[in-house]
TrEMBL record, chain A:
Naturally occurring in which organism (per UniProt): Psychrobacillus lasiicapitis
Membrane-traversing stretches: 185-203, 223-248, 284-305, 312-333, 362-386
Name of the featured protein: ABC transporter permease
Sorted UniProt keywords: Membrane, Transmembrane, Transmembrane helix
Residue stretches in coiled coil: none
Keyword Membrane belongs to the record: yes
UniProtKB/TrEMBL annotation, chain B:
Segments forming domain ABC transporter: 2-231
Statement: the UniProt record of this protein carries the keyword Lyase: no
Keywords on record: ATP-binding, Nucleotide-binding, Transport
InterPro entries: AAA+_ATPase, ABC_transporter-like_ATP-bd, ABC_transporter-like_CS, ABC_Transporter_VariousFunc, P-loop_NTPase
Keyword Repressor found: no
GO molecular function, one term: ATP hydrolysis activity
Origin organism lineage: Bacteria, Bacillati, Bacillota, Bacilli, Bacillales
Matching Pfam families: ABC_tran
Protein name: ABC transporter ATP-binding protein
Species name: Psychrobacillus lasiicapitis
Length: 395, 302
């Protein structure tokens, strides 16, 4: 089997299509690191002037406001909530001017908790205006999520031992960028790459039939080796992608594996932190499961339909399937947690964001691994049965 | 030992192999001769189980049959087929190909260097096969099968694209492998060459395997059976049949006349030679019918 693995791996690495995928990933990675990442503009950023402007405006209001029986209720309300709010802003302002990052983190955490409590409870206040985008009817909830997320994150900075900086606060370091990417399209990019790597892993042998047909190895084992090579090749896609990460690391710092990542606990409607190290490892495990899902699926389609286009088509259906049924809050009325495709955005599943969007608490890391693992077992079992048929031909 | 039992293969209602039953023994080189498209490759594909026969079975060493995938792997440990040169991986070297085949069959790794040397491939074996000429690729394919070192070796057109020196070299290696007890089945169009080293030669026609000894009794024996005459005109032939009415004469499509002299003594042979000389026919030989003659007789009948 080792020798066959060697043949397959040599072919995999010399396959022009696969080389092209690695080159494209390298290009995207560098482009992202040099062009997109520097332009990252977080909503929740460290903006001394914004804090100062808000603080001074409110301070002036508090210094001049006259509260009596004829004062408008909203003015009374503002005069009630601003002193505490401004205290946090003052502490933030002082901390940032003194470069006391720990203090900034602590007061910012409290600021976000307080701001969220005040904003959500009362219909008169708003979250950061950038959440109120066109046609976003869930803007308040998005703001609520983001404020609690930030509160938890800053609390994590306070409790942790990591070196803090503005780049860390704005999640610009290499590891935090990785975390943000895992939360968005990186899992999809890796899964699609895996799909393209696997699409011809069986059918390419039609070009070398006489060389491979008589090898003393069962078709089932050949399929397992091919799957193994695809898995390894897909994992190797991390190498070109990590080039971009090193570029970001050189510019903004690498970050720290101990930095906090807030996880939304849907059942309790609150956040708790895990480390980036844990978050990345869980994502990696999740993505490996997804690789296994797509590899076993495409191997199965390869031996049943024997057409590369069909492989691509079936694989693509699974990649985009979630977009077909996804609707915000639909998890409350539909068991989306039994659909493997609901777990495709691995970072968002681990972070609990998918639960927040679906309004459910069932989309968890554990359930995801179970559902995807079960599908892999089913695909492999069917493949095993087919490959054991006496008249079966691999290609 | 490999046995084919009542093998029948039909494609689109046409019989490609018809009830073929034959046994190939260890230490034997079998020659398969037939025009293209008459079923040589199909027969080999059936032996390898690349094609499932409509009926019949292949039995290896009296026990193993292609009844399940497990047995197929076991049989492929012992039976191999030479790869086609167009199927080589152009990006990797010849030596890598040999190493892969050697490790797939867990054969003696020393065989790799030995075969490279024996086939004179040392100067190019480390280069990617995409840079090889047809002959070099063909030699590599042959070498791959040699390093797999299986008990039964099937070779389809092994001498294709080879110069006479390498044809001779490969023939010698085949004879050596035969002496090691291998069963070698060769399909070839180089009839003179095949005739030299094959122990049994089969023709294929209408889906049947015909041992050439059945077509020409005594073909494999070392005795004078035929006078081969080139360019015998019809009038001379008519004259010949008048002078030697008891003698069988056959004209082949390739302008060769075969005079059957089985059982003739020296005096009778002398008369025939004298007749030929008197008629200015100087291009003739006394010996036995060649494989080329039989092929011509069998496949090019007019």
């Amino acid at each position: 089997m080792r020798a066959y693995f060697k043949i397959e791996f040599l072919q995999f690495m010399s396959n022009k299509k696969n080389i092209a995928i690695y080159v494209i990933l390298l290009f995207f990675s560098c482009y992202y690191a040099l062009k997109t990442a520097p332009e990252y503009d977080p909503i929740e950023k460290v903006d001394e002037y914004e804090i100062e402007a808000r603080y001074l405006t409110r301070e002036e209001f508090l210094n001049n406001v006259v509260i009596n029986n004829w004062t408008h209720p909203l003015t009374v309300f503002a005069a009630t909530i601003y002193p505490q709010w401004n205290e946090y802003d003052k502490k933030r302002l002082d901390a940032i001017r003194q470069h006391n990052m720990k203090e900034y983190a602590e007061s910012t955490s409290k600021w976000y908790s307080y701001a969220d409590e005040m904003t959500l409870k009362n219909g008169y206040l708003y979250y950061n205006p950038r959440y109120y985008t066109y046609e976003n009817t869930y803007a308040t909830w998005d703001g609520h999520y983001a404020y609690l997320y930030s509160a938890s994150r800053y609390e994590g900075y306070t409790e942790g031992e990591s070196d803090l900086s503005i780049n860390v606060f704005e999640e610009r370091t290499a590891l935090q960028t990785l975390q943000r990417l895992l939360h968005s399209y990186l899992p999809l990019i890796l899964i699609v790459s895996c799909m393209f790597f696997t699409v011809d892993v069986v059918l390419k042998d039609r070009r070398n039939t006489t060389l491979l047909q008589g090898l003393p190895l069962s078709d089932w084992r050949k399929l397992l080796v091919k799957g193994g090579v695809s898995l390894l090749g897909s994992l190797l896609a991390i190498i070109p992608l990590s080039v971009g990460l090193f570029i970001i690391g050189a510019r903004n710092g690498l970050g720290d594996f101990e930095l906090p990542v807030p996880i939304y606990l849907a059942s309790e409607k609150l956040f708790s932190n895990i480390t980036i190290g844990q978050y990345v490892m869980q994502n990696l495990l999740f993505i490996v499961f997804w690789f296994l899902f797509f590899i076993s699926l495409i191997l199965l389609v390869s031996i049943v339909i024997k057409n590369e286009f069909a492989n691509l088509l079936v694989g693509s259906v699974f990649v985009i399937a979630e977009f077909m049924y996804y609707a915000r809050g639909i998890g409350a009325i539909r068991d989306v947690h039994w659909y493997p495709t609901s777990y495709i955005q691995t970072g968002q599943i681990i972070a609990g964001y998918r639960n927040f969007l679906y309004s459910t608490d069932a989309l968890t890391f554990g359930t995801g691994l179970f559902v995807i693992g079960l599908c892999v077992c089913v695909f492999l079992f069917i493949m095993f049965l087919i490959s054991r048929r006496r008249k079966f031909r691999l290609f | 030992m490999i046995e084919l039992k009542n093998i029948g293969v039909q494609f689109s209602g046409r019989d490609i192999l018809k009830d073929v039953s034959v046994m190939f023994h260890p230490g034997e080189i079998i020659g398969l001769v037939a025009p293209n498209g008459t079923g040589k490759s199909t027969l080999m594909n059936v032996i390898m189980n690349y094609i499932n026969p409509n009926n019949g079975k292949v039995i290896l060493n009296n026990t193993l049959e292609y009844t399940n995938k497990k047995n197929e792997v076991k049989i492929h440990q012992l039976v191999s087929m030479m790869p086609d040169q167009s199927d080589l991986y152009n990006q990797i070297s010849g030596k890598e190909h040999l190493k892969i085949y050697s490790s797939m069959w867990s054969s003696n790794t020393k065989l790799i260097d030995y075969t490279i040397k024996e086939l004179g491939m040392t100067s190019y074996i480390n280069k990617p096969t995409g840079t090889y000429s047809l002959g070099m690729r063909q030699r590599l394919c042959f070498a791959m099968q040699i390093v797999s070192d299986t008990q039964v070796m099937l070779m389809d057109e092994v001498m294709n694209g080879l110069d006479p020196t390498h044809v001779e070299l490969i023939s010698q290696i085949l004879v050596k492998k035969k002496s090691e007890g291998k069963t070698i089945i060769v399909a070839s169009h180089l009839l003179e060459n095949l005739e030299k080293y094959a122990d049994r030669i089969f023709f294929m026609k209408n889906g049947e395997l015909i041992l050439i000894n059945e077509l020409s009794p005594g073909f494999e024996q070392r005795e004078i059976t035929t006078v081969r005459v080139i360019g015998m005109l019809n009038n001379i032939k008519e004259n010949f049949t008048k002078v030697f009415p008891e003698t069988n004469v056959k004209v082949l499509p390739n302008d060769i006349t075969l005079i059957d002299v089985r059982g003739y003594d020296s005096r009778e042979l002398g008369h025939i030679v004298e007749f030929l000389k008197e008629n200015q026919l100087i291009e003739f030989s006394v010996g036995k019918v060649t494989l080329n003659d039989l092929y011509s007789m069998y496949y090019q009948e007019v």
